[in-house]
TrEMBL record:
NCBIfam families with a match to the protein in the record: Ubi-OHases
Oxidoreductase as UniProt keyword: yes
Organism of provenance: Thalassospira permensis NBRC 106175
Family according to the record: Belongs to the UbiH/COQ6 family.
Keyword Oxidoreductase in annotation: yes
Segments crossing the lipid bilayer: none
Protein name, UniProt field: 2-octaprenyl-6-methoxyphenyl hydroxylase
Residues in FAD-binding domain copies: 3-345
Pfam families: FAD_binding_3
UniProt KW keywords: FAD, Flavoprotein, Monooxygenase, Oxidoreductase
Pathway entry: Cofactor biosynthesis; ubiquinone biosynthesis
InterPro entries per UniProt: FAD-bd, FAD/NAD-bd_sf, UbiH/COQ6, UbiH/COQ6_monooxygenase
Amino acid sequence: MIETDILIAGGGIAGMSAAARFAADGHRIMIVDPAPADIGEGTDLRTTAFLQPGIETLKKAGVWDAIKPTGAELRVMRIVDAGGTEMTPRETADFDGAETTQGFFGWNVSNKAARVSLMAKLETLPNVDFRFSTTVTGFTGTARYGEATLSGGETVRAKLVVAADGRNSSLREFAGIKHRRWAYDQSALVFVVTHDKPHDNISTEIHRTGGPLTLVPMPDLDGKPCSSVVWMTPADRAQQLYNMDDATLSAEITRDTMSMFGPLTVASPRAVWPMISQVPSRLISARLALVAEAAHVVPPIGAQGLNMSLHDIETLADLMAQAKLKGEDIGATTLLKSYERKQLPKTLARVGGIDLLNRASMFEPRTLRDLRYAGLTAINRIGPLRKLAIKVGVGK
């Protein structure tokens, strides 16, 4: 029998961020993940855009100073509507980080760098026990504790169990929490490119049909400006693009970006991810809280996914800090209900909003594309709408 304050299932970026954040408040943490301890050098150059609220959580976790130097600042979010009959920009809206309170939107960081920094931090914390190659095989929540069985045969009793074990969360299933999932017949092709023109720390999202094509700034690669690509397109076309050789794919993305960056050169392996959205019916059960993709899955629009996860973590951390200060139970039903009241309406609203944005980005009929163009024009040119878009965009 192992006893701890918090058991976290899932050792991805969200799970490790939760462990570091909760440990910073003095809680004893056990975190388990099915992956082996040796993550290797790997070739994954995919990135995550950390927005300002998420950065604040990582600062409190004591890990942001290590992550920041590996990324590139996001100063401007540029949205380009190119949905007319010609492949040319019709409307370009630049949302400048100077219009926010902190002066920038966030930082784009490679997933590998974030993971390595988080693992290094957790290794230094005496109140964190990281168990690799380990899964939760059973869970029961009681009035006094959450009891989980592990794949190694151990039993863990914790005041709180946090499910950060992904969209197919076992803990969510053990707790009997139902979820709703829907697909888009759309996939995201993810890879890295270099280009001649500097990105000037501008994240560029181009809308035609099928979904947005987004280039997000990265640090230079081999002395050339570099960007990560998330290309959302119908599933059949995504597979066709995936099967192209590097030279053909480079020519295709240069054409679809309308040479805005000059010639683009594929500079990494690529991956294809089917697009889905997903929400659960509840975020809690006895002694259990869902966070990250166990709690919500959205298409990669506006860098919302992981930043929503960090917001889950920060909300839970704040509630537990208040309970600890009062000498109260950090896994009590009243605390978990407060977490759900705070997060579930926001989760449903944000998943719904991103769903609408994604469907709008997929418009093919001209009348609908023109409607999307009119909406972007209004947001860009009407002050109150512009301010609201910036506020929503940074995750507030």
